[in-house]
Amino acid sequence: xxxxxxxxxxxxxxxxxxxxxxxxxxxxxxxxxxxxxxxxxxxxxxxxxxxxxxxxxxxxxxxxxxxxxxxxxxxxxxxxxxxxxxxxxxxxxxxxxxxxxxxxxxxxxxxxxxxxxxxxxxxxxxxxxxxxxxxxxxxxxxxxxxxxxxxxxxxxxxxxxxxxxxxxxxxxxxxxxxxxxxxxxxxxxxxxxxxxxxxxxxxxxxxxxxxxxxxxxxxxxxxxxxxxxxxxxxxxxxxxxxxxxxxxxxxxxxxxxxxxxxxxxxxxxxxxxxxxxxxxxxxxxxxxxxxxxxxxxxxxxxxxxxxxxxxxxxxxxxxxxxxxxxxxxxxxxxxxxxxxxxxxxxxxxxxxxxxxxxxxxxxxxxxxxxxxxxxxxxxxxxxxxxxxxxxxxxxxxxxxxxxxxxxxxxxxxxxxxxxxxxxxxxxxxxxxxxxxxxxxxxxxxxxxxxxxxxxxxxxxxxxxxxxxxxxxxxxxxxxxxxxxxxxxxxxxxxxxxxxxxxxxxxxxxxxxxxxxxxxxxxxxxxxxxxxxxxxxxxxxxxxxxxxxxxx
Amino acid sequence: xxxxxxxxxxxxxxxxxxxxxxxxxxxxxxxxxxxxxxxxxxxxxxxxxxxxxxxxxxxxxxxxxxxxxxxxxxxxxxxxxxxxxxxxxxxxxxxxxxxxxxxxxxxxxxxxxxxxxxxxxxxxxxxxxxxxxxxxxxxxxxxxxxxxxxxxxxxxxxxxxxxxxxxxxxxxxxxxxxxx
Lengths: 551, 180
Description:
Chain A has helices at 28-32, 37-43, 64-73, 75-91, 108-128, 138-167, 175-180, 195-208, 231-248, 481-500, 525-539; strands at residues 3-5, 11-13, 183-188, 212-216, 219-224, 255-263, 267-269, 275-286, 304-316, 328-337, 342-344, 347-368, 374-382, 389-393, 396-404, 407-409, 415-417, 426-433, 438-445, 448-451, 458-478, 504-511, 514-521, 546-547. Chain A is an alpha+beta fold.
């Protein structure tokens, strides 16, 4: 049987707690059999949260679809999912996630070794269970989607019956409905009192308080703040939009998180984009002592004020073929300062690292010993783009024979380089003077010049090297940000609606020569009680409010 | 009495199927994305991303121009010991198979020609060496530890990716799979 008939004749769907038409508690007849009708009826008055409407999902479990639906419709299941997510998220913070391992782990075996060697058996288990990549694991993602599903279905199943119920104001309810309310009072009416006049007076008083009045003969229901009932559903919609935004980051081209080091003067490709960025200059600005509100003992140190890269962003018209000679068009130029990224269309370049005072080029002066230590000319050896041959003076040139940017003596006793970075540059040079027919070899290493012959004609005088700053820029594209913010704003609106307003209803009805007064609100019972007391004073009726609210 | 109350059973089922269907699509998409963390990663069975780089002392080479030949793409640096040790093996296998349609291409990671040239001469390398000065192609191919070697068939498809030092037998065995 799909329906349940109320005494008033209204057919309610199965699962209804309060008759949709007259408000009589429908389960009362069941409980009444076991005890005193009135008492049990009062004690068992249903929760008003969903207006006593039937949630259909609780009653239909015919098909698989219905069963799945009903599972997700349960708040208990929702809370279960939230708890599992909370526990999992917490476990994910016990040991670092793979991306935060502080040492290089190039292969999967290195990752495994890191966990077992650093954290022992627990680390081994952690790794074996895949907790080192928890937040992007399929099961964690599944849990998040399950939470989203639960949000959608729980909301749908509750908001629709609630909307139906509230859309049809409960005027002229059954006495048991009024008596079941937490705020209730009644009074004998004297013979000369006209119920209509009392109702009019009450209506006027409540209207002044901002209530909307619904009347059916002498019965009236005053209501305000109904919209606050939608608050929780609106904030759930906000959450769902938020989750959709997070999911959208997985659409190709929507999200990019990269990092690029650019040394001063260098133009490099921005990874995974058709852009190039040039570091024109980098500088750190420090607070001067006059700017400080009080004298600080910095022990000769300084406090940085600003980390700034002056940059130019180019679009590569020839980006279809990576590595091919780029065809650059300037699209933007300006400073990149911490918290003030360079933004071009969806791309942001964020100042987020620096290596200051790095070797950029070595400077020397070629000295002619035979001419009494006469300087022949300057030599600049760029450590990133060394010129193979330099013209120094008239008819004199210097050739770079070998260059090891990060010199080390190899296991075969041959010079080698440890990395491709100029941390410890070593140069083998040849000075060629054509007019005097001199060829001499020399080596620069660790601030010293070693000439091939002790009495060589030429030598080098070491000058101050060029020091450059290498700026680290974070490269970000996040097209889902507007969606995420939109979801967050909707969420906030919902929270404010639900928190700062209350849905208050006051019933005034007449029954067998008595006036019945009842009130219901979803929160702030104190406020409602005060408004009802004012109403009692204004209508000058001897009503004592029974207060069964815990508030 | 609203539509909801008297909505018939089939209607209810349709709505539920539709809502659950949309959510299922979201689930599939989310789980798929969690498995494919880097959609641009170079993988066995996929086409090797095309690129063009200048040769040490030579013209540019574009990968797609090598279609029709088996390509061994080796990423290396002079600072890397195993790269040094496998160079002679690569050179030997290149000599053995170059007439059968094999090209060995070495991609040097971010070093200047002055550093690369003596190294190449020392090992008598005759196969093309490309200079990835800004490490752009190294990033494109998501190179972690080196040496890393890609075996690409005549259709441009990656057949195998090997991280670590190769010896002659290993190269010969892998090259057999990519010869035209």
